[in-house]
């Protein structure tokens, strides 16, 4: 009964903008969006999914953040210095940043953030039971537990074992947000659903699977001119899983934004060229730009695992045949309205400086090569080749059926295994499927982030190498590139690694994605960026 009262009270706050005579209440602005994929945690230590990251980004801050132009900018750190040898990072913190009010603090008032809070927050990430970020911290020089150091209240120092060029970019990831020890100890595992941060918005309520609400943090430290951010009064997130229902709510004006091709009824509102139809152009705004994201099919190829021992997918020629056996360009044209680019030049997407389709040769549609590879593998025309199961979520069923139909023409029979998105995510991490649809988006704008998926020391379930790909030459180049300060040499190493991946075919790159958002006309200040990060602190709603 108590929970019901809280929910109803909140509903009054969020939706009672029409109360006559209450001008203050009428002026409140709520930004609403639907999250079809669901949110599993609001703890930064668990911000490994796109949906979680968007939520966490409204509630928490780190030392630094990534701008829309992919430049690293100050956040809680006002400035920083990297030692000449690249081993020590010293951050000077703002002295006016406070945690949100919480009962864990004296008198319930949020206290000031100090360097000790960052020591606690970063050390917490070293625990694999708590965090998904442990593989990002293997280079910390943690002798005697002093990899992270508070020199004083406003000076935080990180010590590395060896130089790592992308490290500052890594610190923009939401994992590295500051969290309060008192609230973590008070909430325990429930911190995931009752978070406390420093961000422009603070947690209000969450009915999992139904509604999540954040409200304005009146004590937020960032200013825009003479105005204190944020401008919005609240954020309301719904969790409708059905695309048609979700999109209809947008057309009715019940939500302010939809994001991603898979959340939009493209046949309804877009032309074949991927532009807004005339009848919708005056009703909404469309934002598009390249997205540092690669959608792919992955093969689990660890032959020591029972699921792989008797699978034809352990044969490289079969994996290569699948890569050649369908037309990516038609897939992007007809299934995605040309929003995105066929992934024919490796795993690293365009937008990163190391991308070069003249140097990395991937796979284009070539059914004759697919048939030749099947013959070489001992399955002429697909004869004797067992049926191959492809695990995907319902959201990507149409894409899976397209690939299924085209591969059948070469003699490769695919059975589609549809799983709930959350179940599929866990199945892949737990090594329970050996052919699956997945995507990877940049956590920070460096190709190392994409290549880390194939480093042998990052094998899942502890790391993100879901294919269990292992190649000594790849590992050697990967380790060499991490400490290489010369950009041109490092990019050359990245390209060599990408080519090795294409040759060994542990994955089937599908397309390089594109940021696509439809936004209501009364929304101002909502920007997009190549990492598709959602930042609402500067958004206004008229």
The biggest beta sheet reads: 5 strands, antiparallel
Radius of gyration, CA atoms, in whole angstroms: 24 Å
> What would you call the shape?
globular
Structural class: alpha+beta
Write down the oligomeric state: single chain
CATH class of the largest domain: Alpha Beta
Q: Mean pLDDT, rounded to whole units? A: 93
Under CATH, the topology of the largest domain is which? Dipeptide-binding Protein, domain 3
Q: Any low-confidence stretches, pLDDT <50, length ≥5? A: 1-25
First and last CA, distance: 36 Å
Short structural description:
With 542 residues, the protein is of the alpha+beta class.
Would you mind describing this structure in some detail?
- With 542 residues, the chain is of the alpha+beta class.
- The protein folds into two domains: 36-199, Alpha-Beta Complex (Dipeptide-binding Protein, domain 1), CATH 3.90.76.10; 291-515, Dipeptide-binding Protein, domain 3 (Roll), CATH 3.10.105.
- It is built from 18 helices and 21 strands.
- It has helices at residues 2-15, 23-26, 50-59, 115-124, 167-170, 181-187, 243-251, 266-269, 278-281, 306-309, 316-324, 328-335, 367-376, 397-408, 421-429, 448-451, 472-482, 487-504, and strands spanning 30-34, 64-66, 72-74, 77-82, 88-93, 148-152, 155-159, 201-207, 211-216, 223-224, 227-228, 234-238, 257-259, 284-299, 341-342, 388-393, 414-419, 435-441, 507-520, 523-524, 540-541.
- Strands 13, 14, 15, 18 and 19 form a five-stranded antiparallel β-sheet that branches.
- It is globular and about 75 Å long.
- The two termini are 36 Å apart.
